Amino acid sequence: MATTSASMRLISSSTLISQGAEAKVYKGYLTPSGSAVLLKYRFKKTYRHPSLDTTLTKARVAGEARALLKCLRSGVNVPGIRMVDASEGLLGIEWIEGKSVKYLLPSGADDGDGEGEVPVESPSQTLEHFGISVDTLMNLIGIEIAKMHLADIIHGDLTTSNMMVRDPASFTSLDPKVPTELVLIDFGLSYHSTLVEDKAVDLYVLERAFASTHPDSEPMFAGMLAAYEKQVGKEWSALRRRLDEVRLRGRKRSMVG
Amino acid sequence: MLDSAKNNRQDLVLDSMPILQQTLQQTRSPLTNPECPVLALGLEGSANKLGAGVIRHNPDGSSTVLSNVRHTYITPPGEGFQPRDTALHHREWAFEVIKSSLASAYIVMSDLDCICYTKGPGMGAPLQSIALIARTLSLLHNKPLVGVNHCVGHIEMGREITGAKNPVVLYVSGGNTQVIAYSRQCYRIFGETLDIAVGNCLDRFARILTLSNNPSPGYNIEQEAKRGARLIPLPYTTKGMDVSLSGILSAIEVFTQDKRYRPNGKPQSSEDKDIITPADLCFSLQETVFAMLVEITERAMAHIGSKEVLIVGGVGCNERLQDMMGIMAQERGGQVFATDERFCIDNGIMIAQAGLLSFRMGSTTPIAKSTCTQRFRTDQVNVSWRA
């Protein structure tokens, strides 16, 4: 490659926001006057054989874009796709102005001696800013996950940090009672499946995430499930049975050494 | 099975998150230096390796490996080791191996403070032989017994040898494939194999190619892979922080039936260009499987925020795996710790090390409870000796 590709130039003009194991996340602009985009760059892993690395990166970027697209078509609130460059490993999606649900719900009490990333505002104050109550928020989460599962997309990593609430200041809601919208993000581990099992596991993963990040989350999760039930309709009885089964599994397993 | 594993993984990951940060802050170990040197004999025999080793913990907090003797039950090419024959091997060689480990440590049985043995996990019959030998020695010489978890033995020995403080541990061997991190008196499993272990995958492929089992099938695959050039596409199956390996084994086995496959590794004529050799298959298997392992390790490191990674277990002495891990760690600004075959491959000294740590914390195994078990998860052990 003599000249750098357009994707690489885009990255170099953008600001790095965070780096995970898989990808670097940037905030950038496709056009000087346009709105911001979030760039998820799956950088090259030099420990992997180059051709293996290329195949994997391509498949993963395309997979994530495909899942987002399917969600968009089915009316699930996810970030819109702005650009895909699978061979360079770059995915550009809509920049969402808002806050992660993780910071809108009360977090663990023993967080005090942690690394000190305690939000300045208390969760209830912030929720007020978004114009919704905890119950409404749970309702929104339930509806969104149900819509996603009805489209046969399994998120694979449902946690409260992978959900965002749009800032009412930069969003016009159709519903006068709910000035905001819940958006599901990070489809890096998502896949397509029609199985009740996969959907139940998806819900179980979220239940565990709730329990470990937000104390006394049982009523919240129950509220979320009630909304999910209403939205998902006739599939619910099978799903509920499977979710009960899945809950029983996790703890007892003993692996053959 | 597959999904239950997935759930379990989530359990562990999510539960341990806030805890990890706490433990990083405490640095004081509950373990105090011994007043006089303490010695332990370690007996290992959970698979085809019979090991005996003596370790000494000194009053200044350091430790000395006095001896490390091993005898491996090697089967003919194309064959694995059967539990019954392996147990027989251990019983036949136990006296020789233990005697030589004491002799090379220049000590006698009465010098020991405790006898440590592998309680599990592993193959039933070999474990039973070792437990029986340990019990006999304990009663004969009136020494306390300490039952040790094999996996914890590997981790403790790796930490001792490399000096890694609080690493993410990749434990890869014939029976185990786990990504482990310590938090609150427990080695938590962040990711693991959903079916077969990576060593098992390599060993079984070596059997398909009828590679020699001497010194180990994995070693011969590694040597063979150095001559491979062509990367054959194989399934790549990471699921979050877990991996699945059985499908890869089936997929690569199919290539040994391929029309392009040349068992002798040589083209039939000068026209014969499009060929697959055993070396290519070994190369592809290693590249794919190790990339998966490095990926899940990296994910665990990112999750926890750790910069150190320690590789233990028999597959850990594979240099290609160490190289790949090294590149990954370097890119993250971290460091990889690995040991050589003396301490990577199952040995008695690691059992002595982990056993002695637990003994110094005042825990012993009474004769009535000196059982062994094939199923003994790493996270079931109370790691009392760490902060």
UniProtKB/TrEMBL annotation, chain A:
User: Which reaction does this enzyme catalyse, per its entry?
Assistant: L-threonyl-[protein] + ATP = O-phospho-L-threonyl-[protein] + ADP + H(+); L-seryl-[protein] + ATP = O-phospho-L-seryl-[protein] + ADP + H(+)
Which keywords has UniProt assigned to this entry? Activator, ATP-binding, Chromosome, Hydrolase, Kinase, Nucleotide-binding, Nucleus, Phosphoprotein, Serine/threonine-protein kinase, Telomere, Transferase, tRNA processing
Assign the protein's first listed, main location to one coarse class.
Answer: nucleus
Nuclease keyword on record? no
Q: Which SUPFAM superfamilies match?
A: Protein kinase-like (PK-like)
Query: What GO terms describe the biological role, i.e. biological process, of this protein?
Result: tRNA processing; tRNA threonylcarbamoyladenosine metabolic process
Where is this gene product found? Chromosome, Telomere; Nucleus
- EC top class named in words: transferase
> GO CC annotation: what is one?
EKC/KEOPS complex
Domain (Protein kinase) ranges = 11-257
Per the record's keyword annotation, is Hydrolase included, yes or no?
yes
> From the Swiss-Prot or TrEMBL record, what is one GO molecular function term?
protein serine/threonine kinase activity
Its EC number is: 2.7.11.1
Q: Which family does it belong to?
A: Belongs to the protein kinase superfamily. BUD32 family.
Query: Could you give the subunit structure recorded for this chain?
Result: Component of the EKC/KEOPS complex composed of at least BUD32, CGI121, GON7, KAE1 and PCC1; the whole complex dimerizes.
Instruction: Describe the task this protein carries out.
Output: Component of the EKC/KEOPS complex that is required for the formation of a threonylcarbamoyl group on adenosine at position 37 (t(6)A37) in tRNAs that read codons beginning with adenine. The complex is probably involved in the transfer of the threonylcarbamoyl moiety of threonylcarbamoyl-AMP (TC-AMP) to the N6 group of A37. BUD32 has ATPase activity in the context of the EKC/KEOPS complex and likely plays a supporting role to the catalytic subunit KAE1. The EKC/KEOPS complex also promotes both telomere uncapping and telomere elongation.
Protein name from the UniProt record: EKC/KEOPS complex subunit BUD32
From TrEMBL, chain B:
Cofactor(s) this protein cannot do without:
a divalent metal cation
Q: What GO annotations for molecular function exist for this entry?
A: metal ion binding; tRNA N(6)-L-threonylcarbamoyladenine synthase activity
Under the heading PROSITE patterns, the entry gives: GLYCOPROTEASE (PS01016)
Q: Cellular location of this protein?
A: Cytoplasm; Nucleus
SUPFAM superfamilies according to UniProt: Actin-like ATPase domain
> Which residues hold a divalent metal cation?
H150, H154, Y171, D346
Name it. N(6)-L-threonylcarbamoyladenine synthase
GO CC annotations, alphabetized: cytoplasm; EKC/KEOPS complex; nucleus
Q: Which reaction does it catalyse?
A: L-threonylcarbamoyladenylate + adenosine(37) in tRNA = N(6)-L-threonylcarbamoyladenosine(37) in tRNA + AMP + H(+)
In which residues is substrate bound?
Y171, V172, S173, G174, G175, D203, G218, E222, N318
Q: Which residues form the Gcp-like domain?
A: 65-352
Give the family this protein belongs to, as stated in its UniProt record. Belongs to the KAE1 / TsaD family.
Name the domain of life this protein comes from: Eukaryota
| Keyword Acyltransferase in record | yes
What detail does the entry give on cofactor binding? Binds 1 divalent metal cation per subunit.
Where's it mainly located? cytoplasm
Gene Ontology biological-process annotations: tRNA threonylcarbamoyladenosine modification
> Keywords for this entry?
Acyltransferase, Cytoplasm, Metal-binding, Nucleus, Transferase, tRNA processing
Q: What is its EC number?
A: 2.3.1.234
